Q: What sequence folds into this?
């Protein structure tokens, strides 16, 4: 019975690979021309005698200069945070009236229920400056993520976003409580 030829043909390259010479391969180190052309710094010390044996570490980049705070950016962040705070104050003025209307709300579509829904709408409208300020702060953060920004400005922006979000979260909780009360919850 004849032995299949296929396994022998597949094994042949593997067996022949062992017969190759391991000497005479070129070095992967820098060539003398690379030093002369200025691509690499010239070797010194022990490396000067056999430059192919030593590789100099790449020159390190100088540290970037610190970025100064941008007064215009600080003013913009401050204005947006003030708008969020004002939205919070306006909301706080309306929340008492909306809560009182919700407490008096009757069955759906009754006169007292409609009054409570209108108070809830006014409360939602009072929240708009806070939501707008958060959207503007988020857009500003995205814009500043694409350009160099000082650590101080970045921290100021993060802090303003966090404070504005805290105001908005408190407003949302109040709205949910009042909405639930109006709907009989």
A:
């Amino acid at each position: 019975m004849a032995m299949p030829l296929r396994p022998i043909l597949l094994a042949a390259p593997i067996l022949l690979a062992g017969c190759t010479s391991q000497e005479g391969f070129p070095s992967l180190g820098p060539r003398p021309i690379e030093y002369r052309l200025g691509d690499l710094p010239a070797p010194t010390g022990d490396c000067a005698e056999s430059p192919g044996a030593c590789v100099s570490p790449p020159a390190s980049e100088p540290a970037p200069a610190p970025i100064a705070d941008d007064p215009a950016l600080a003013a913009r962040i401050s204005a947006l945070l003030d708008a969020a705070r004002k939205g919070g104050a306006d909301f706080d003025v309306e929340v008492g009236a909306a809560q009182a209307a919700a407490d008096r709300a009757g069955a759906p579509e009754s006169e007292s229920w409609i009054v409570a829904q209108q108070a809830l709408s006014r409360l939602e409208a009072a929240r708009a400056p806070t939501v707008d300020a958060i959207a503007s702060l988020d857009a500003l953060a995205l814009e500043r993520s694409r350009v160099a920004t000082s650590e101080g400005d970045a921290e100021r922006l993060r802090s303003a976003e966090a404070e504005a979000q805290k105001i908005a979260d408190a407003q949302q909780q109040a709205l949910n409580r009042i909405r639930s009360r109006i709907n009989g919850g």
Observations:
- DSSP finds six helices and no strands in the chain.
- Helices lie at 6-17, 32-36, 46-49, 71-104, 111-144, 151-182.
